[in-house]
Write a structure and sequence with these properties.
It is a single chain. Helices cover 24% and strands 25% of the residues. The strands form four sheets. The protein has a five-stranded mixed barrel. By secondary structure, the chain is of the alpha/beta class. It has helices at 19-29, 62-74, 94-99, 144-147, 156-159, 177-184, 203-211, 300-323, and strands at 10-15, 35-39, 79-91, 108-114, 121-130, 135-137, 152-153, 168-171, 191-194, 215-217, 221-227, 230-236, 241-243, 246-249, 252-254, 286-288. It starts with 9 loop residues before the first strand and ends in a 7-residue tail after the last helix. The protein has two domains: 10-135 and 252-323, 3-Layer(bba) Sandwich (FAD/NAD(P)-binding domain); 139-249, FAD/NAD(P)-binding domain (3-Layer(bba) Sandwich), CATH 3.50.50.60. It is elongated and about 70 Å long. The longest helix is centred in the C-terminal third of the chain and has 24 residues, at 300-323. It binds flavin-adenine dinucleotide (FAD). Residues 15-21, 38-45, 47-48, 51-54, 85-86, 131-133, 149, 153-155, 158-159, 256, 259, 290-291, 297-301, 303 line the site of flavin-adenine dinucleotide. Residues 12-306 form the FAD/NAD(P)-binding domain. Keywords: Flavoprotein, Oxidoreductase. It comes from Leucobacter exalbidus. InterPro entries: FAD/NAD-bd_sf, FAD/NAD-binding_dom, Ferredoxin-NADP_redctase_2.
């Protein structure tokens, strides 16, 4: 069903149709709620052709996983799916929320610009669930994108197995590099950690890594090199090429929530959207789930699981709000 400004008010507008948003959406339509998912179709994992570790779907192309999820969601009569980029979310005044029939005086207007020839979408919703995932910025190397999703990955749990016993890199400029190197050592001891000139591995950490055969390379990187689609090494700024066939990069992640406008959301030190244990953000009525909440990027099945858990809390919040019986339900 496509959405428009004249449609009835809905229960929840879900911003982002990845595993977190789709899973929450499925639970909520099954709770007889009118639910809209607005999705701009730019998932972080679009660089990859296979996703791993989702029980019953190991190895499935990520787009196929989404297609199945969307189909299951849209099979319910109260589901609406809009291919749209959300541009703004505004809070309704209490009087306006009551006027459209929202019993607890909480409501939002969500506006999205249609993509791929689709119409713009606007919803009046009792609650908002942000499941917009993260955008990522890779270390600034000219050819790195060409190998990202094939030779180079960012999620060790997702793609470590395929890299067992290979000569690997870990490239990153953040303070969690040491912990990542330890994780990767489970898959291959032939690992070089490239800090690209950043001072992010302490001398005692380097000693510990050296003790298990992992080298730390602190020189500046010029680029990733390869032959056709195959990565063959890392070229340093001084011209030396170190032979490597793949490995991991540590991107910097951003939570894309500019569309929230004047509705302020508390963020943690990494910029992730902070929620309470029910999944509600610091803004009443606005929930968040998936990669966008601490501890940040994890896995498809975790995002989907979070979506289901927060959907249940959201549903209870709306039931309690309608009956005026307060927030505490446990
Ligand atoms: C290269 C790569 C490979 C990966 N491989 C695996 C793997 O093998 N196995 C695994 O379990 N996990 C893997 N992951 C991790 C997995 O992709 C994420 O953990 C998961 O997708 C997070 O789900 P999400 O729903 O929170 O966000 P996403 O899947 O990122 O979905 C967010 C959605 O929100 C949309 N959106 C953003 N802003 C707006 C807006 N303003 N309006 C409307 N829509 C918006 C985006 O377009 C996107 O469709 C991989 C990640 C990457 C980067």
């Amino acid at each position: 069903m496509t959405a428009g400004a004249n449609d009835l008010p809905i229960g929840v507008a879900i911003i982002g149709g990845g595993p977190a948003g789709l899973s929450a959406g499925l639970q909520l339509v099954r709770a007889n709620r009118r639910i809209a998912i607005l999705d701009s179709n730019r998932p972080r994992h679009s660089a990859t052709l296979e996703s791993h570790g989702f029980l019953t779907r190991d190895g499935i192309p990520p787009l196929e996983l989404r297609r199945i999820g969307r189909e299951e969601f849209e099979a319910y009569p109260s589901a609406q799916y809009a291919q749209a980029i959300v541009r703004s979310v505004e809070r309704l005044s209490e009087a306006d929320a009551h006027a459209v029939g929202f019993p607890d005086g909480i409501g939002f207007r969500v506006h999205g610009t249609g993509i791929r020839g689709q119409a713009n979408a606007e919803f009046i919703a009792r609650r908002v669930l942000i499941s917009a995932g993260l955008t990522e910025q890779l270390p600034q190397l000219p050819m790195i994108r060409a190998y990202y999703g094939t030779a180079l990955h960012s999620c060790v749990e997702c793609d470590g197995f395929e890299k067992t016993d290979k000569p690997l890199v870990l490239i990153g400029e953040t303070s969690d590099l040491f912990a990542r190197a330890l994780l990767i050592s489970r898959f291959s001891s032939d690992l070089i950690v490239f800090t690209n000139g950043a001072d992010t591995i302490r001398p005692e950490q380097e000693t510990q890594l050296n003790a298990i055969g992992i080298r730390v390379e602190r020189r500046i990187i010029d680029d990733i090199v390869g032959e056709k689609a195959d990565m063959t090494g890392v070229r340093l700024a001084d011209g030396e090429v170190i032979a490597r066939v793949g490995g991991f990069v540590r991107p910097r992640w951003n939570a894309p929530v500019e569309f929230m406008g004047e509705i302020e959301l508390e963020r943690d030190d990494w910029g992730l959207v902070v929620t309470d244990e029910r999944g509600e953000t610091s803004a009443r009525g606005v929930y968040a789930v998936g990669d966008i909440v601490p501890p940040g990027p994890q896995q498809l099945i975790i995002a989907a699981g979070n979506g289901a858990r927060v959907a249940a809390k959201l549903n209870m919040d709306m039931i309690r709000g309608a009956l005026g019986v307060g927030m505490i339900d446990e």
